Amino acid sequence: MQCSHRMKERASPVALTSNLQVLSMIEWMTSTGARSMFRVTVIALLIPMAWGCSKTEPSAAKAAPAAPKSDNLAPAPAEQDEAPAPEQVKLPAGIQPAVGAVATVNGRDLTASSFNRELARLVGSGVRVPPDRVKHIARNILNRQIEQELRNQAIAREQVVLTEAEFEEAYRTYTSRYVDAEGRFDEVRFRASLKRNNLSIDQLKSQVRKERMSKKLVEQLGNVTVTRAEMRTFYANNNNSWTEDESRDVRPILIRCQQNSAPEVLAKCEGKANEVYQQLTEGEDFEMVAAKAKDLPLRSPMHLTHSSSEVKIARAAFALKVGQVHKPIRTRWGYYVIRLIEKNDSRIKSYDELEDEIRKRLEERKYYLEGLRIVRDLRERAKIITRLPY
C-alpha cells in the first residue's frame, strides 16, 4: 500500500524512465539465453517493482464491480476504448477482414467476427477468387445475416420455442440423406460433405436448429395449409412427374468384409458367399441360409432401378428372372448374394399413391414462399444500417 501511494505522489518522468529501464533490463536478460537461478530470481523480483507498484488504476478498476456505483468512478483505461483488432482469418489478397459492426438491425449490431468467419469459409480455402466476385459474395453473406437477425428478433418477439425433440427430428431428417437403401448411415460420405462445405458437426447442428426455428416462425406468422383441391390440381398438371421407372425388388444376403481387407480375408469372404449362393440355388430356405451366414437381422428387400446408387447390384438384378439367384457381387460393404422376388414395369402412379408426397411438396413450396414474404415484410419495417467495407 505504501508503495502505491508513493508511486501516485511521484509519477514523474524520472519514475517512468526508471520503469522503462527495468523493462529494458528484463528484455536484455531474457534474450541472452542465460539460465542461471540468479537471473530468474532477479526477474521475479523486478516484475512486481516495475508493475505491481505503478498499476494503481487497473487495481481500482478491478475492484469496482464489488463496490456500489458512484458518479466519481475513475474513467476506464484508454486501451478499452480502442477498436478491436481484426480477427485473424484467411482471405484472398487485397481483401481485408471487416472490423467492428458490419450492420445494425433495429439497434442491434452484427459483429464482424461471424461475417469474417463465413467469408473465410467460402473464399478463404486457397482457391483464387476475383476481387469483384469476393465483394459480391460478401454482400450476399451480409444480406443473409441481416435476414437471419430479422428472423431472430421476430422469433424472440413472437416467443417461438423449439423443443429438443423437434430439433432431434429435424437433425435426423437432414442426416437421412446419407442413409442408403439398406438403412446404413454412410459416415464417409457425411464427413466428406462436411469437409467440402468447411463445416464442423456443431456448426451443422446450429444451422439445422436455425432452419427449424425459422420454419416454426413461418408456421406461426404465415399460411402453410395445403387443401385437397390444390393437391388434385398439382397432380393433374404434372402427369410426366408421376411415371415410375422400371424396377426390381430383391432379397439380399451380405457377407460383410471391409473393402481394404487383406487378400486372404477377402478370399475367405468370397468363399463364404459362394457357399451361400450354392445353398440357395439348391433350394434351401432363404431365412435359414441367411441365419447360418449370420446376416442378422434379416434384411428387408432392396428396391432397385437403373439409376440406383449400388450400380453393380442393380445391374445384376435386372439380369435375373423372378426366383433366380445371382452369383456373389463384390461391393464396398462386402459380398452380396441376391434373389429376385419381383419385377416391376414402368407405369404412372395413381393420385392415392402420391397423396402424401404431393402434400409434402406443396407444403415445402408454401414454407419457402411464406418465408420470403415474412422476411420482406420484416425488412420493410426495420431500420437497417450497413457498414460493409467493400
Q: Helix content range of the residues, please?
A: 40-55%
Low-pLDDT windows of residues: 1-86
Reported CATH architecture of the domain at 246-345:
Roll
| Tally of DSSP helical segments | 14
Span between termini: 53 Å
Shape, principal axes of CA atoms: extended
| Widest sheet: strand ordering | 5-4-7-6
Structural class label: alpha+beta
Calculate the mean pLDDT score and round it.
Answer: 79
Q: Write down the CATH topology of the domain at 246-345.
A: Chitinase A, domain 3
Would you count the extended β strands for me? 9
The rounded Rg comes to 34 Å
Helix/strand order: HHHHEEHHHHHHEEHHEHEEEHE
The percentage of residues in β strands lies in 5-15%
Report the major sheet. 4 strands, antiparallel
CATH class category name of the domain at 246-345: Alpha Beta
Features of the shown structure:
390 residues; alpha+beta; Chitinase A, domain 3; four-stranded antiparallel sheet; 14 helices; 9 strands; disordered N terminus
Characterization of the model:
It contains 14 helices and nine strands. The protein is α+β, with helices and mostly antiparallel strands. Among the domains are: 2-60; 164-221, no CATH class; 246-345, Roll (Chitinase A, domain 3), CATH 3.10.50.40. The longest helix has 31 residues, at 351-381. It starts with a helix and ends with a strand.
What's the short story on this structure?
The chain has helices at residues 2-9, 13-31, 37-52, 56-63, 112-123, 131-157, 164-175, 187-196, 201-221, 228-237, 263-281, 286-292, 311-318, 351-381, and strands at residues 101-105, 108-111, 243-244, 247-256, 302-305, 329-331, 334-344, 347-348, 384-386.
